[in-house]
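I am still getting used to backbone structure tokens and would like to learn alongside you. Please make up or recall a protein chain and show it to me in full. Would you write everything just below, so we can both look at the same thing?
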Amino acid sequence: MPFSATVFNVLIASPSDVPKEREAIAASLHEWNALHSQSTGKVLLPVMWESHSAPSMADRPQGIINEQVVKSCDLLIGAFWTRLGTPTGLEDSGTVEEIKWFLKQARPVMLYYSDAPVPRSKIDTKQLDKLEEFKKSIRDKGIQEQYESVEDLKSKLSRHLTIVMRGMSVGTAVNAAVVKAAKDSTRTPASPAPAVVSSDEGEITFKEYTEKSFIILGNTKPFKDAIKELGGKWMKCSDGSYAWMFSKKKLETVAETLGVSPTLER
């Protein structure tokens, strides 16, 4: 049966290293529509630059996307993994420029950061550092969440969308109460880290991995939440094992957090 509904344009924003996440976000929006559109009178329309912009010589590339795509959207959903993106001339990446514009306009922003392992071939410490700096700069803005897989992303996004859309109308911002409710819906309280950093797997140590990065060896499970907060990336090493990886710039900070010496094994 036909029904009347308000359509919300949802911008899907991300660097180039998360194509599956972009597809998953679009699929999640369609799934939300199938479940909730008729009862709420709201429809979420996925918007992506690759399908909603047209070639033009009138401005720089990101400026064109802003005019043709970004400014017509009501909500932004973004995903990140190993990259922040390519500079636009105004910001560190197109995704950053889009997010900052949304925040300035007080429009809802929902950001998701992948904890998936990082292959050695994809390690770019400069990009990782820029991504962590950006995360810190907007730490208290909008809804921000970690995810472990594409399915985990879809699950968390589905819950968050339901909460956000309850009070959403055109041009409204997501207030602090909504942000807290969304975060609480997918998080459990973190356990405090123990004072002793040793186990059957051995004491925690740091090992040089590349010229600009290092990995953490030992039992890191008790410190998982703290390591994530510091920006660690769970990656598959060249020997087939898995470990947390950081830029060497963070050696002192990571060592202080874990309570061990900031010494690198070679």
In short: Strands lie at 6-13, 42-47, 75-80, 109-114, 143-147, 205-210, 213-217, 233-236, 242-247, 264-265. The chain has two domains: 6-186, 205-265.
